[in-house]
Design a protein that fits this description.
The chain is mainly β. The protein has no helices and 11 strands.
Length: 113
Amino acid sequence: QGQLVESGGGWVQPGGSLRLSCVASGSIFRANAVGWYRQAPGKEREWVATIFSTGSTHYADSVKDRFTISGVSAKNTVYLQMNSLKTEDTAVYYCKIINLGIWGQGTLVTVSS
């Protein structure tokens, strides 16, 4: 099985932007749906967005119109562009190959002033 590595997390002020990356060790994104999830302190992990092999995307209502998921199959990379960040977006963000149940290790996003 392949591995996933997330990066791009960090601290940002409310209203700011970050772009997260999820890189696969092989060409395992092809023909698979990839999702971003997040887990805030003291809360359960929740789904954020999904991109399918067709290119179609779906978003949780809480991030719709602020976050954009995209993928570059040639780079085995899926991105999560996060704009207009809010304090409630603070969480560890994980990517997952949904069909295979493979998770990355997560990257922390902190939104605070």
